[in-house]
Amino acid sequence: MTSTYHVTIDDCGVAWIDDTNVKVIEVVAEHLAHGASPQEMHLQHPHLSIAQICAALAYYYDHRAELDARIAEEMRQYEHQRAVTVDSPGKTKLRRQGLI
């Protein structure tokens, strides 16, 4: 593992916020999706300090191309899974019951 201030990189190359089970990419995705400031994010996630959130965002801006590519790949995988499960047995049953 490698570590920078408030961010640790595991053996698989994934960046984590120190002493948490929160990935840097999760904080970044929320920031990009909602445009939330570190202070606003801290209100939503009080277990993360503002310093930890800022460190995660700083790590993102230092590694933006790599993390943007990971986010895009995760979105592609999500959309693929969503398309594949459009007519899953569970969804079909819920549709029949008028629940979706």
Q: How many H/I helical runs?
A: 5
**Percentage of β-strand residues:** 5-15%
Mean residue pLDDT = 91
The strands making up the biggest β-sheet line up spatially as 1-2-3
Structural class label? mainly alpha
- How many beta strands in the DSSP annotation? 3
Rg, Cα atoms, Å: 17 Å
**Main sheet characteristics:** 3 strands, antiparallel
**Oligomeric state as shown:** single chain
Give the CA-CA distance, first to last residue. 45 Å
Q: Tell me, what's the shape?
A: elongated
What percent of residues adopt helix (DSSP H or I)?
Answer: 55-70%
What is the H/E string?
A: EEEHHHHH
User: Which ranges are low-confidence, i.e. pLDDT below 50, for 5 or more consecutive residues?
Assistant: none
How is this structure best described in words?
- By secondary structure, this protein is mainly alpha-helical.
- It has helices at 24-34, 38-44, 50-62, 64-84, 89-96; strands at 2-4, 7-9, 15-17.
- Helix content is 60%, strand content 9%.
- The chain has a three-stranded antiparallel β-sheet.
- A hairpin with a 2-residue loop joins strand 1 and strand 2.
- The radius of gyration is 17 Å and the shape is elongated.
Which secondary structure elements does this structure contain, and how are they paired or packed?
Elements: E1 2-4, E2 7-9, E3 15-17, H1 24-34, H2 38-44, H3 50-62, H4 64-84, H5 89-96
Helix pairs in contact: 1-3, 2-3
Summary?
The protein is mainly alpha-helical. The chain has five helices and three strands. The model has no long low-confidence stretch (mean pLDDT 91).
